[in-house]
Amino acid sequence: MWSYQAPLRDMQFVFEHWLQAPATWRRCQAFDALDLPLAMQVLEEAGRFTQNVLAPLNSSGDRQGCRWRAGHVSTPDGFASAYQAYVDGGWPALACGEALGGQGLPQLLDAALQEMLYASNHAWAMYTGIVYGAYLCLKSHGAPWLQERYLPEIVSGLTLPTMCLTEPQAGSDVGLLRCRAEPGVDGSYRLHGNKLFISGGEHDLTENILHLVLARLPDAPSGSRGISLFLVPKRLDDGQANGVRCDGLEHKMGIKGSATCSLVFDGAQGWLIGEANQGLAAMFVMMNSARLHVGLQGLGHTEVAWQNARKYAAERLQMRAPLRPEGVQAQAADPLHYHPAMRRVLLELRAASEGMRAIGYWAAHLLDQAEHAVDPQTRQHASQLAQLLTPIIKAFFTEQGFRQASSSLQVFGGYGYVTEFAIEQTLRDSRIAMIYEGSNEIQANDLLLRKVLGDHGQAFGLLLAQLREEARLGGDWVECQGFAAALENLCNSLAAVVEDVVERTREDREYPYRIAGDFLQLCGVTLLALSWARAARVSRALPETDPLRAGKLQSAGFFFDYLPSRLAQHLAAIVDARATLAFI
Amino acid sequence: MWSYQAPLRDMQFVFEHWLQAPATWRRCQAFDALDLPLAMQVLEEAGRFTQNVLAPLNSSGDRQGCRWRAGHVSTPDGFASAYQAYVDGGWPALACGEALGGQGLPQLLDAALQEMLYASNHAWAMYTGIVYGAYLCLKSHGAPWLQERYLPEIVSGLTLPTMCLTEPQAGSDVGLLRCRAEPGVDGSYRLHGNKLFISGGEHDLTENILHLVLARLPDAPSGSRGISLFLVPKRLDDGQANGVRCDGLEHKMGIKGSATCSLVFDGAQGWLIGEANQGLAAMFVMMNSARLHVGLQGLGHTEVAWQNARKYAAERLQMRAPLRPEGVQAQAADPLHYHPAMRRVLLELRAASEGMRAIGYWAAHLLDQAEHAVDPQTRQHASQLAQLLTPIIKAFFTEQGFRQASSSLQVFGGYGYVTEFAIEQTLRDSRIAMIYEGSNEIQANDLLLRKVLGDHGQAFGLLLAQLREEARLGGDWVECQGFAAALENLCNSLAAVVEDVVERTREDREYPYRIAGDFLQLCGVTLLALSWARAARVSRALPETDPLRAGKLQSAGFFFDYLPSRLAQHLAAIVDARATLAFI
Fold this sequence. Notes:
Domain Acetyl-CoA dehydrogenase-like C-terminal (chains A, B): 479-581
Largest interface: A-B, 94 and 94 residues
Protein name (chains A, B): Acyl-CoA dehydrogenase
Number of domains of chain A: 3
Order of helices and strands of chain A: HHHHEEHHHHEEEEEEEHHHHHHHHHHH
Domain Acyl-CoA dehydrogenase/oxidase C-terminal (chains A, B): 277-447
Oligomer: homodimer
InterPro entries (chains A, B): Acyl-CoA_dh-like_C_dom, Acyl-CoA_Oxase/DH_mid-dom, Acyl-CoA_Oxase/DH_mid-dom_sf, AcylCo_DH-like_C, AcylCo_DH/oxidase_C, AcylCoA_DH/ox_N_sf, AcylCoA_DH/oxidase_NM_dom_sf, Diverse_Acyl-CoA_DH
Domain Acyl-CoA oxidase/dehydrogenase middle (chains A, B): 163-267
């Protein structure tokens, strides 16, 4: 009953009109062979893979889950062969450098691929979700011999990496981790300790697994300044098993097809990545990429929630609606999508899904520019903006994913609560994204404390400039003037909030922590406003008869009609939070 | 790890101070033998039963679920013996009339019992949840011989009733139902048709089951005016099986220990309850009671979400907080409950749980007065107010239950997502309450269209008067003046909204449907404001050193500090909704 169709038409709209990516590609030497038809060919292929191979395994993978036996983990039926098809299609290599066997395509294309993977089968995509981050981490911090030895295997998909941070006592606070690494005489290390909640820590998709592990050297300072990063393969080059084993799987609310492992490192041999005690910096290369990916999970959940609600609401007849579209005759009962409460939900689902898509892809496009733009200032600004957007995308998108899945479930009524329609699975799967890779509360603190206040508003100023530029451009077209004016107002509000926070924090240093969550939500809503103001403006490039053009204007209209209440809520909450919070 | 403690102290506070129930009981002949110590003795007993018998079956029941085999349903291990203990304790009889073997206690006590049942084991409590409603329905609409025959069995718990409304094509819209009843020569009827999503439609807790079934007579008008209500026992008096069978169970997101049955009526013998074609009116007696119960589920979920988050947040150490309580020394990491984002969640959980408790119990107390008050006007007003509160409690409480369970899960971080801590079960269980017994969207329409606009504001005027009275009383105490003023403002806003809706609806008849959801939320927040304004005021009756008194003032302070943003959101949304919603 649950189904997924890759939204290729909207993806193309974002690439071609919202981002005008082909023009940027032409300006970068790295992508000068790429054009829109080629990019769309890649996405069409990815669409077929996700629709035909992954989506059919979504429900069955949830029902079957993973099984652990004597340290070995079996993934659900079909997962391993789907992975082989993924490798054969060259998908792990999509955005990796050509010198290492990759396809050298932009991260923008990878973002679209990731959205499709997560939308069609979140649990399956957990196995591949960290690949690009691990590639980046090793490429930027690994010793040359480590790169030579392992990067080609990662790029080809022969092995899969993991990210081993969490320990029972150290979740959000990696500074508390105890896993230790003892130096050996040959330059390698022996790792000892327990890691928890390790996605893909053990599985049957690949022969070998590369664990990227945070641990402490014997003489390391305490806290987060004494953490180093190690590469620990499951199998050593002589084919022998390394000293790491999976001693159990978590039973979880969702993503049941993803093996969430408890790992024991018992003298496992590993190699340092980057400098001693600088593990967090190396890990953050991977983590930033992972956070963008997690945001794209929220986008994927919202997209499937929207697709499935839309289809069901058109088919299910219940009660008469107060109004029908012109020319439609009354029957014994109307389809759900005529009822006002359901129309609001559907319009919101579409506005959230399409609105977030442009923003998520923009962040990926900025990462491409940060790496490949010719002009150094363009590179620097793109990097700063991408850093700023990352926590917003991670937290705002994942909260949307959960909320919109719940809204979609509500459209199905009782049928939404039974497993047959699988929207309940989407809701369960979506919930984890608000927690892992830094909980949404951590993202909110990262955004306001570090990314906005921490750099004295430099990156934030770049974002405001982007918003104001869009408001200026929108002002030229009569249908967009209202949207442009709303966006301009929003900039002013946001700038005023930041000024006020700076001021207030001098007297009340807890204030930014109290408002961080609402500030992040406000930024998220602002990004959606940018998304819809620009979508409405650039939809002019579509033929007047194109239903996508009408749909974009309709969604923008809806979004801006209901924008004031969203702003009112978060702006007022930022004021409410001037009151201190009691210790309970 | 998950645990439940009956919040007896707060229940007593609501009974004694918030409602001043003992004074009301003394004025009703029906309850003049009841006093507070006796009432608390009953609740303590109920607390022991739910903590010691039901709570330990909550997780195991979820893991095991129900099993169907050849028409027979087995409930999870322990459910049947827990039911026997419930019957032996006389709990089904709590609020039923003494003439029928009941204990004749107020519905207020039953509300507290229900909260504990749902909080400790929602799935189990599904089997008993409809008992009081079925009792009321049969007592008010059943023929004398039907009452004589079946009421004592219901009151004693010998049989359990069901409510059979839904069919595959008829969910929210019972007017679409097709199940038919053919009259026989002996005054009984033969029922034919399929019913879906029937909670407790088949199980192993009792020998017999009494199905209350909506069906159509052969000459019935179409739509909802042609529906009649029938009593259809699973077993006939000769011990033979009646023509009704369970042909399957739903696999659901949650409440897995509750048997959600698909029933086939194949010439089952039944008897008419009430008049032909007046089935909806008879069913609504049961439905109104059920809706209040569902609201209490939301309260129960919020309460366990709060208890478990509170405990975990005090124990789990992660990262340093920006501030600590005075005199507390910094350690390597602080407990979660020092971190501002977590403090806000915890304060909100407590304010929601305790705030809703007073309102939910107030509704039950009003039902007692509607039935037993000496003065006819008191009875009438109490009934009108209870009718008005019912959809608010059903929808607002259940949405809170789901949201607060999600907030609580977030406190647990990754541990919240694994089954071991069972807060993920609370989240899954809570989600159904937003759907069944009339979806929350149906409640919103019922509230605004029928209960507020439909009676020209009479019942709504009674509510405003209650709110204004509280605002007046609160004005007398300096610590409550701010709360009282906020409540008064809220009344004015709410009254203005209703006036505006009446006006606007003349030109735009869809407008009330577009704002119904936000209007209901606004009413819910207003009821919480009433709850906290009164709690703060009446907490003066507690000794100054009583931590409950300090806690009530702290919660009221928090609630009113953060009230403006909640109001801003819903008030602005009601304005936003002046814009029409496109057909999508």
